[in-house]
Amino acid sequence: MGLDLRKLEDLKEKMQVEEDFGAIWKFFFDHFGENPEFMALGARAGESMRQFLEPILESICKQLVNRDVMTAQFILTELPDQKFYHGPCLTDAGIAVVFYFEDLKMGMFSLTPGLGSGLVHYGRFSTIPDPRLKMYSGLSSLLKSS
After folding, report:
1. Which residues on neighbouring strands pair with residue 97, listed in sequence order?
2. Domains in the chain, number
3. Is residue 11 part of a domain?
4. Which DSSP string do the residues of 94-135 spell out, in sequence order?
5. For residue 14, is it within any domain?
6. Where are the beta strands (DSSP E) in the chain?
7. pTM for this structure?
8. For the segment 26-82, what is each residue's pLDDT rounded down to a tens digit?
9. 19-42 pLDDT, tens digit each
10. Per the domain annotation, does 33 fall within a domain?
11. Is there a contact between 43 and 80 (Cβ–Cβ < 8 Å)?
């Protein structure tokens, strides 16, 4: 199956409106995450974007597991022409994966706490500043587990 980058627009749409977060991740992995052509298009993202997203991931993890979470080995890949970022991150709460559309200032997050558990936590987040809080809102939608 060849790579069709127009599917990124479909992913962007699904991310904004779809309530079944598992279906969004299935779409991502079916069309991109397991596609070697897609993986070859990306380049290592700049340190500033990694430093921007990492505390958001830590905050989401903390909400999911009700404790502080340490992250390590956050490997963020960028597709500059699409303003799209994606990648895995090891945490002491499990393996996390994120994708983020810079133009929307919105992304998705998954956390698998343990191999073989069958449990996956999902989150959709926004990085649009909330003027009432004078900070980023972090999560703009539900956290879900399946």
Report:
1. 88, 110
2. 1
3. no
4. EEEEEEEETTTTEEEEEEE-STTS---EEEEEEEEEETTTTE
5. no
6. 43-44, 71-72, 77-79, 84-91, 94-101, 106-112, 121-130, 135-145
7. 0.83
8. 999 888 877 778 777 888 898 999 889 988 888 888 888 888 888 888 889 998 888
9. 889 899 899 988 887 777 877 788
10. no
11. yes
